[in-house]
Amino acid sequence: MSQIRYAFIVSDRTGITSESMGQALLNQFSHIEFRRSMHPFIDTVEKAEKMVAIINQAAEESAVRPLIFSSIVNDEVREVIHQSNGLHLDFFDAFIGILEEELQTEATNIVGNIHGITDEEKYHARMEAVNFSLTHDDGSTDKDMRKADVILVGVSRSGKTPTCLYLALQYGIRAANYPLTPDDLELGSSDLPRMLKPYKQKIFGLTIDPERLHHIREQRRPNSKYASIENCRSEVREAESLYRQHGIPFLSTTHKSVEELAANILLETGIKRRS
Amino acid sequence: MSQIRYAFIVSDRTGITSESMGQALLNQFSHIEFRRSMHPFIDTVEKAEKMVAIINQAAEESAVRPLIFSSIVNDEVREVIHQSNGLHLDFFDAFIGILEEELQTEATNIVGNIHGITDEEKYHARMEAVNFSLTHDDGSTDKDMRKADVILVGVSRSGKTPTCLYLALQYGIRAANYPLTPDDLELGSSDLPRMLKPYKQKIFGLTIDPERLHHIREQRRPNSKYASIENCRSEVREAESLYRQHGIPFLSTTHKSVEELAANILLETGIKRRS
């Protein structure tokens, strides 16, 4: 029998919560290799029974017990998964009893819609934010710019667009972005670009390590002046100087994911989320 | 003293995992109103002590204990939060011991980077997918279309763009989209649009309730033929007929969030995620 350690992530909804949970835990055992698989929408006893058959099959093939990470609201469905030959860690099992006791009331046991459309208005606001961010990508228009929650600025390829899209999709934030071009930077850092002037309070700067920027730009336009390390150094220096001069808060995207950038921007600006 | 029930979501990283967890649990008590707040990047003893002061202040103001949902890897930091006058539910506390026993090894206790850049290559693939999806939005080009993992099709305003962006940002999937125009649909459903023909196996259809579509389009172009209920009914009918005729799988976006649509599309197509 093999020593493969199976890890099943099982959910009655999209699996986003149980996946975060499973990943966060498995990452704490990074010296072990797991064979992970995702199983969303396991929301009936029948589907749970099929799931158990799959888990038991894996258990038979391996000398070690499969792990099961789940967040299943329905007691009956969860109970079926419990019968499998794996180690079953369920998120609701662990916490719901403690909360029921503390709150002196019973959980509703309604399958959680935390990644569904529970609130039409909030969902609509998120989708509007996505549209807004797409329309206001790359300084393409200043129409309705006053409706922006935040305007990310930075040199070309510093990570503005994905960060804006993440802010919009995840938090319903209307995030515009504006590229600092060599023309903008040649002003000698004394002046903000015309389009940005009326919205100074909404501006948040991105910066990036010049070496990294050079690497990224080389993939786009190899051997160009645009991608040259000298030009990258100069653009980044001018951009940072502009931020400092105008008291614009800024972050480096070099070692940060869009998730980390978004969380930091929210924390530093205090912008209110719409989701 | 007030009866306000405070709920603090505390994390040593972005807070994405602890927020999913807190929301999933609190949603099970939807009859109670909670005053929620997010506290990401609590990653030192000093920050944890400040956090405890905030929690204790809330505890003094309220007749009921604050709830604290956290996912904090560092034992020392977690221990500080434990000292507060709230009910502290920590995700790692609940599960890590059981896993250590099962796996016969100790957790690394390294602050989880599950929403950071742990794997440069995977992160790069996600960002490339975002670029791909932006470039291939709304049928704008068929260049490199063969590199698409999936091509979402649907009538105008059926939800293609946000779903593509979510697939790209969350799962690193290169998701193109193509709008079925009245011209495409007038072909009498007998033929696929020219741009799509070579990629039939990659096509996934979206549909939407005509009433809902009418409502969405009215906000864009009030009283237009485009938005009229008759036109919406006819376009949706033709689109669904096209899907059926060509054996294209499809889903309705009417009551589904982008998270639910993405999870369903992954499940139905079996596309492999890059993240």
From TrEMBL, chains A, B:
<keyword id="KW-0808">Transferase</keyword>
<keyword id="KW-0723">Serine/threonine-protein kinase</keyword>
<keyword id="KW-0418">Kinase</keyword>
<dbReference type="InterPro" id="IPR005177">
    <property type="entry name" value="Kinase-pyrophosphorylase"/>
</dbReference>
<keyword id="KW-0547">Nucleotide-binding</keyword>
<dbReference type="GO" id="GO:0016301">
    <property type="term" value="F:kinase activity"/>
</dbReference>
<comment type="function">
    <text>Bifunctional serine/threonine kinase and phosphorylase involved in the regulation of the phosphoenolpyruvate synthase (PEPS) by catalyzing its phosphorylation/dephosphorylation.</text>
</comment>
<comment type="similarity">
    <text>Belongs to the pyruvate, phosphate/water dikinase regulatory protein family. PSRP subfamily.</text>
</comment>
<dbReference type="Pfam" id="PF03618">
    <property type="entry name" value="Kinase-PPPase"/>
</dbReference>
<feature type="binding site">
    <location>
        <begin position="154"/>
        <end position="161"/>
    </location>
    <ligand>
        <name>ADP</name>
    </ligand>
</feature>
<protein>
    <recommendedName>
        <fullName>Putative phosphoenolpyruvate synthase regulatory protein</fullName>
        <ecNumber>2.7.11.33</ecNumber>
        <ecNumber>2.7.4.28</ecNumber>
    </recommendedName>
</protein>
<dbReference type="InterPro" id="IPR026530">
    <property type="entry name" value="PSRP"/>
</dbReference>
